[in-house]
Design goal:
- Keywords: Membrane, Transmembrane, Transmembrane helix.
- The chain crosses the membrane at residues 220-241, 247-270.
- It contains 14 helices and no strands.
- With 300 residues, it is an all-alpha fold.
- The radius of gyration is 30 Å and the shape is elongated.
């Protein structure tokens, strides 16, 4: 099955870059995935290797690599500390293998920012280090994916529902950060699985079918009603010519005028009312029930 993120026009160019592509393969457990050759000067290479250590529960080489990194003395101008993939992977490793956390906490302090996304991401990573996986102000999708990678499951239905509702209501991309977008897509899938719902692929297919069904039933009802009304108008016209003094014909003409039906111009008032009635009848006949009143706009 083609993964959800691969279907996005936004994600296609992003996934041409090695680091996001590798991160996605880790999140979706791509079989046979191997990290690139470890290069200490390359933050993406570090991130890929640490993620594989976490995935494979390979503690010894991860501990040795982390000890080497602890010898670094970064400052705010150190570019590598702003690599979200690397910092996230290190947080996962520190928690999974119970490594010393002071050094990674210092990195998070150096990453301090006034940008709301970056600020909340840093706060989320800090709370994960502290063992607080359900802080109300965090990006719960980051915590959720962390739990998946490390096997530390601390479910919280309230936080899960809040995250799910936020992401589902907002257009994609959800954030300016590619890292947060990738994590959010995976978190949506995890939420679907946890709730026992359709997976995102199936849900989107169902949504597309529903949209086509609603459109086609309305079009069919419109056609049926138009034919019936035109047939009525034509019948009255013929009857008026052939039976001008007939009482039933006169009554028909009177009712037609009352509903605003005009042979040459608009009979939209009656037609629209009949079309709405016919549409509802068709949908009920096919077993369709609108989920909420707020969805009626989309049905039209």
């Amino acid at each position: 099955m083609v993964s959800l993120e691969a279907k996005s026009a936004y994600m296609a160019p992003l996934l041409e870059s090695p680091m996001p592509r590798f991160f996605v393969d880790i999140l979706y457990d791509e079989p046979g995935l191997q990290p690139p050759k470890l290069q200490l000067a390359d933050s993406n290479s570090l991130a890929c290797n640490v993620l594989c250590f976490v995935r494979d529960a390979d503690e010894l080489p991860c501990r040795e690599l982390y000890q080497q990194l602890q010898g670094r003395k970064p400052n705010k101008e150190s570019e590598w500390i702003y690599n979200d993939y690397l910092v996230f992977s290190l947080v996962c490793a520190v928690k999974k293998f119970t490594l010393p956390s002071e050094w990674i906490r210092q990195l998070l302090a150096l990453r301090a920012s006034q940008d709301e996304e970056k600020k909340r991401l840093n706060a989320t990573l800090g709370n994960i280090l502290a063992g607080n996986l359900n802080n109300r102000e965090d990006y719960h999708q980051v915590s959720l994916v962390y739990q998946m990678l490390t096997g530390e499951q601390v479910p919280d239905e309230t936080r899960l529902n809040k995250m799910f509702n936020f992401l589902w209501r907002h257009p994609f991309p959800f954030f300016t950060s590619p890292f947060l977008n990738l994590i959010s897509l995976k978190a949506l899938e995890l939420a679907f699985n946890r709730k026992g719902l359709l997976n995102p692929e199936q849900f989107f297919a169902a949504e597309q079918f529903t949209e086509r069904f609603l459109h086609r039933t309305r079009s069919l009802a419109s056609l049926v009603v138009t034919v019936l009304v035109l047939g009525l108008v034509l019948s009255l016209a013929i009857a008026t010519v052939r039976y001008p003094t007939n009482g039933w014909v006169k009554l028909g003409l009177l009712l037609t005028s009352a509903f605003g039906v005009d042979v040459l111009a608009s009979f939209s008032g009656l037609r629209d009312k009949l079309r709405d009635m016919a549409t509802k009848a068709l949908r009920r006949a096919f077993g369709y029930s609108p989920p909420t009143s707020s969805s009626t706009k989309s049905e039209k």
